[in-house]
Sequence to fold (214 residues):
Amino acid sequence: MKLLLTSTGLTHPKIISAFNELIGNDLSKVTIGFVKTASRTKEELKYVNKSKNELIDTGVLVSNIRILDFANRNDTKTMHEYDVLYVCGGNTFHLLNEIKKNNYDIEIKKFIYQNKLYVGVSAGSIIPTPNIEIACVEPSDPNDVGLKDFSALGIIDFEISPHSPELVPFETVGGYAKTNKRKIYAISNKTALKIEGAKLEIVGERNYRFFNVK
Fold:
């Protein structure tokens, strides 16, 4: 499996290098399934456009970036045609709700286990973890969809707190980890986790904390 899990996308030269390494192909030939389901507000959509422009800046062709929507069940048929699944940030509860409602949890796992690249931004990075409870930590996403089951994909065996320490202080994440007895990486806006098979590497500015409270 290949994952690049970020807080804000391709915002550091070393994160961009990790993206290139994980693709291992001519970027002008790479196709991207670009998912903006989590983004509903004008502010969130602004960051979606930023992420799209960052991809184009790496050499990905605009014509090879196709919009996918986890709220649209029909897109499960086309998802596997792409080389990369790029899941943008926004509201984590809304994103997971649409994924489960339309059976994308099964399809995303299939995609990742085909050794294709999954890139997550913020909420998109939380989805491959065991659960999304970190989204309840202040400043939390509003659970305006009334989601009760917070279990996520479980592709990896730890949780991720994006935007730490910018939005969520490391101390706050440490308190959450202590209470829940879970492994968690808290990563800054310019830090990412590069995962290839069983190998995990911290890339970017390497501003992070790892909590493993037993």
Notes: The two ends are 27 Å apart (CA to CA). The domain at 2-212 is CATH 3.40.50.880 (Rossmann fold). The CA atoms of residues 40 and 188 lie 23 Å apart. Strands lie at 2-6, 32-35, 65-68, 84-87, 117-121, 159-161, 183-187, 191-196, 199-204, 208-212.
